[in-house]
Design a protein that fits this description.
By secondary structure, the protein is an alpha/beta fold. It has 2 domains: 6-225, Phosphoenolpyruvate-binding domains (TIM Barrel, Alpha-Beta Barrel), CATH 3.20.20.60; 229-274, no CATH class. Helix content is 44%, strand content 13%. The protein has 12 helices and 9 strands. The strands form 2 sheets. Strands 6-5-4-3-2-1-7 form a 7-stranded parallel sheet. A two-stranded antiparallel sheet has the order 8-9. Helix 2 (42-52) links the parallel strand 2 and strand 3 (61-64). Helix 9 (192-205) runs parallel beside helix 10 (218-225) and helix 11 (229-244) crosses helix 12. It is globular. The model has no long low-confidence stretch (mean pLDDT 91).
Length: 275
């Protein structure tokens, strides 16, 4: 199993920026047809993205389409959903499981299912329906927050005001058997100290990885989410102890471990090996 830690956004109407993003070392590049593209550039962005993804790129590429309840989403889906270079579709402002089902059915092609879908929850209504959305369809492979829109919807000014919503989406994802969500973007691309602190906070909440809007953010995110040397050593100790004796037990240093602790240790080692 692979664990993407960095998701780099690039505007769809700037193919030269997308081309650079593909070589920046991000685990996933997200071509944005929505917020990053001006209304009079939407058609060009769609056409440029379709041309770029006619062949498989060197890294996984997702496409964020326009709002599902707006007039542009059907054309976006028709242009990119079946392209060889598309590894996933990111669906903005999802508020109900029915939206996921409709997109999955609309993008299913002859002889195969829908492409992997990823829901972005960006409103109060979406937060309320987070678990239902996460369970909506087998094609849905992940959910995440869109915090800029959520802040506006809730009227939240301080960062801590979103913590309950963050936990709600994390729990919804895990309850549905989906991977832990990545954090939403840190909008100040020069505030690397703030980004690192925010990532550390996100990790304590249960996020895994983060979206970025500039390549300089990538190493900060990766460093924050990769296991530390101490965490790796502790995980190896736990797994070795579990291999010699089944059931709950105490380590020589007094720490108590059981099946849940061992499973977490194995996840830590898997994350390190996959990156």
């Amino acid at each position: 199993m692979t664990f993407p830690l960095t998701w780099l956004y690039a505007p769809g109407d700037r193919p030269h920026v997308v081309a650079k993003a593909l070589g920046c070392g991000a685990d996933v590049v997200v071509i944005d047809l929505e917020d990053a593209v001006a209304p009079d550039r939407k058609e060009y962005a769609r056409a440029a993205t379709a041309e770029l993804l006619a062949d498989a790129p060197p890294v996984p590429v997702h496409v964020r389409i326009n709002a599902l309840d707006g007039p542009l989403a059907p054309a976006d889906l028709a242009a990119v959903a079946g392209l060889p270079g598309v590894s996933g579709l990111r669906l903005p402002k999802v508020t109900s499981p029915g939206q996921i089902t409709r997109i999955a059915e609309a993008t299913a092609h002859s002889g195969g299912g829908a492409p992997p879908l990823f829901a972005l929850v960006e409103t109060a209504l979406g937060i309320e329906h987070a678990h239902a959305v996460a369970c909506a369809h087998p094609a849905l492979r992940g959910i995440a927050l869109g915090e800029a829109d959520l802040r506006a919807d809730l009227g939240v000014r301080e960062d801590a005001g979103l913590d309950w919503c963050r936990s709600r989406v994390i729990v919804a994802a895990r309850a549905a058997g989906l991977p832990p969500p990545p954090q939403s973007v840190h909008p100040d691309t020069r505030d690397l100290e703030g980004l690192a602190a925010s990532c550390a906070r996100g990790r304590t909440l249960g996020f895994l990885g983060r979206a970025a809007i500039h390549p300089r953010q990538l190493p900060i995110i990766e460093r924050a989410y990769l296991p530390t040397q101490r965490e790796l050593e502790e995980a190896e100790t736990i797994v070795k102890a579990a291999a010699t004796e089944q059931g709950a037990q105490a380590l020589p240093d007094g720490r108590f471990i059981d099946a849940a602790v061992v499973a977490a240790a194995r996840r830590t080692l898997s994350l390190a090996r996959s990156c």
